[in-house]
Structures are given as C-alpha cells and as structure tokens.
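Worked Example 4.2. Consider the chain below.
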Amino acid sequence: MGLFWCLELGICSFDPVSLSDLIEIVPLTKPIEAEITVPGSKSITNRALVLAALGDGETTLRGALWSDDTQVMVEGLRGLGFKVTVASDPLETCNRTIAVQGLGGRISPGGSLESPLEIFVGNAGTAARFLTAVACLGQGTYRIRGVKRMHERPQEALFDALRELGYCIDSVNDKLPATIHGGGPKRGVPCCVSIAESSQFASALLLCAKVGGWHVNVVGENAEESPYVSMTAQLVEMFPKRGGEFLIEPDASSGSYFWAAGIEKFSGRTVEQSEAMAGDTSIPRVTVRDWPESEWQIDARFRAWMRRFAFESVCCGVYTPEFMVEKFGQNWREKTAILEKEGWERITTSRQFDLADSIMTAIVLAPFAVLPASFTDLGRLRLQECERVLALRNELTRGGARVVEKNDTLTVYPSSLHGAEIETYNDHRMAMCFSILGLKVPGIKIKNPVCVKKTFPNFFQKLAGPPPHGLGATILDPRTGRRLGVEDLFAG
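Applying the procedure from the previous section yields the following structure tokens:
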C-alpha cells in the first residue's frame, strides 16, 4: 500500500518502509509557518497504563503514545494477565486509543523458580522499573529482562526499597536481568527509596502503593520537588479508579524540537525587539498543537526557556552577533577573554531545576548564542539511553562547537558550526536534537536514524511533511543524493 500523507490532518497511514541507516538534513531556506502535532507523552502514557491495570474496570486512554517504550509496557501488562486493546488514533499516527481492563489490583500468577514468567522491557526505563514493582504484587516468580543497555542502567535503589517491603529479588549485580518473587500486597509496611539516580524508582513504588498497601518515603536530592515524582503523585490522585476515560497530553520533550526548529539564529534583534519578545507568550512561525498546560511535564517549560535564552544570549538584545563582528572582528568567537568578560553573566540552565530531557535540545542550540552557556546537574543524563553528557560533547565538537565538560556541567561557547556525520549511540533524543541542528547547519548527517522509534517513530515525517502540518524539510540519502519521500521516513 505504501504511505499516504493527509494534508488536512498531518497524519499518514502506511506499510512500514525501512529507514536508511544514514540520512542528511538540508537546512531550511525560508521561514516556516507550521502547527505541528506531536505524539502523546511517554511518561504519562506508561504511568496511565499501570494505573489503569491496577484499577477496577475498563479505562480508555486517548492520545496514548505508540512507540517502542509504550509497546513493551503494553506487552508486559499482557504478560501479567491484563487485557489490553489497542485501536488507531484518527488525529495522530503514532498515538493509539488503548483500553485496559483493570482487575482491581489482582495480578496473574507468575511461573516457578525453574520456569519464571518472562517479561521483556527493551530499553524502556519506565517499563523496567514500573513492571518490577507491579510483579511484586503477584504470586510466583517473574523474570524481568531487557536489551544490553537496559542491563547497564541502575536498579539498585528500587530493588533495595522492594526488599525493605519484604519482597525477594535476585540479581547478580542489582541490575537487570532480575528474578522477582511476588509476595502480594504488604499492608502497612514502610520503605525508603532514593531518587539520586532516577526518579522512576519512586514513581514505580507510588504507582503500586495503594494496591500494595505500602508507605513510601522518597529521599534524595530535592525529593519533594522532583517533577516526575510530582507528576506520578498527581496522576495517582486524579486517575479514574473504577474505569472511564483519560486523555494523554502531548509529549513536551518531543515538542521541544519543533519550537527549536522555528527559532531564528540569535541575531539581528534590536533592544526593542528583544524586550518585546521577552514579554511575548508565543513563538512565531512554528507552534506545537495543544501544548501542555497541566505543568505535569517539566519540559513544558521549554518554550519559556527558549524565549529567555534568546533574549539573554545576546546580552539583553545589545550584543548581537552582528555587533560582535563590528566590535571585535570576524573571529570574535575564538577570543575567550571577550566571551568571559567580567560583568557578563553566563547563561545557566539546570537539568535538575529548569528542564528535563529537553535540556539536550537546549545544549544543541547553545553554539548559536553570543555568550557561553552552562548546563548543570547533568549527572542523570549519563545513566539514560546512552552516556548523554559524553555523547553531546563529542558530537557538538565533531560539528565544530567548543564544549568544555567539568564534572556534571557542560559549557558551550559561541561557535561556527559545520557539517558532520553524527553518531546517535542508538539514542532517540540524540538523533532528534541533531536533526534540528541540521535544519540550521549544512551537511549534518544522522547515523542510525531509526532509533527515534523509541518515542517518536514519525519524527522525520514531521520534518519532511508539507506545511502547515510538517516543516517541509528536505531529507536526503547522502550516498545517492536522492531526496527521501515521506513514505521513506517512518522509523518502524
């Protein structure tokens, strides 16, 4: 059948076509007028799936993300005995309407010690952590396993908390694969969980706490202010307990790429224009439809961050790149003494307090600024789909940026960028961040672009689809020079 692109809705139906292992993003040559629809939030979808399964009666999730991470969650719940029905979403190809039949807190029995019930979680941290806690509520033996990278990611704090609750968990190194010996609910038993390495440990326990009868105490850096722990707590409170419907809002991390695509390089603004932008509540040219307003997703702050960064990165609109050339010469970016001039406040963004995964989008934008920008508290990025701090430093450097890494901080200096083949480390967010860079810098080629299927399988179709529901970008097969059609760009 191939793929059909619907101009009115900005969606497509398709028979999957294999995405090339190397693509080239061609810079946009004119301003874009587009309103992009992004798939549902992965974080909310996977939390909602667990809450629906542990509830009583059928709950229908609308706008749920359909990608690798949510598919392994659905299959994991089916493996635990839950009936899950999946139907297409008429408004977004990579969303689904998912009906989950809750069993009132009951979990299907696991296997035996010799033949445990196997649950595969891929490289989905949410599925790995949440399903581990859910399995404890059953009776029998369960084995949780994933891909190699998931087996390298931390689990110890979650395992320790579950052991404190009285469950037996066997693991050679306190990581996956692990064998879970279900013990059913443990009424009134307390536990303490650290979120120093991942807030998903606390979220896993909080999602199951009511059914399990657990008292969960969350500790670690700013535990009470953790945005993902807060998201989980709020979802637990307001999620329908006896069936019904629940709407999943769009994924703010995924939306950050399109806000970034729409912003011009930080140049050519007068003071008056910058001041006007600082008070503006919208970003021109490219918008993301139904941008989240619940404040559940910390990355919903990205739009406001981008306005602030664009304003501050040119010294409140005064020291634009054009001014710097006139004042200090064409090679002003290479003059460290000027860039670190006393009295110029360095722009700082925290992974802990300001942004979550969208901080990667912010880091990739930073070379276009006039001042050095520091990105702090990046430790958790090292423990995710890849060692993201190292990956960002390496690939920005490969593209001509000056990047300094110190502890868990990256400082990115104003840089003249050039084309490069970008290694994505099988990390969906690396692929998407640097693809947006390719819309601004000639010669950016993305290796293994299919890795975006983890959370956003039709990402490249959104880039290449015609406006107003796509960006109209040209994406090439760099080996042949052939322009890839929308039908070639689904990461299935």
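Residues 114 and 141 are 9 Å apart (CA to CA). The first strand starts at residue 4 and ends at 6. Compare this with Example 4.1 before moving on.
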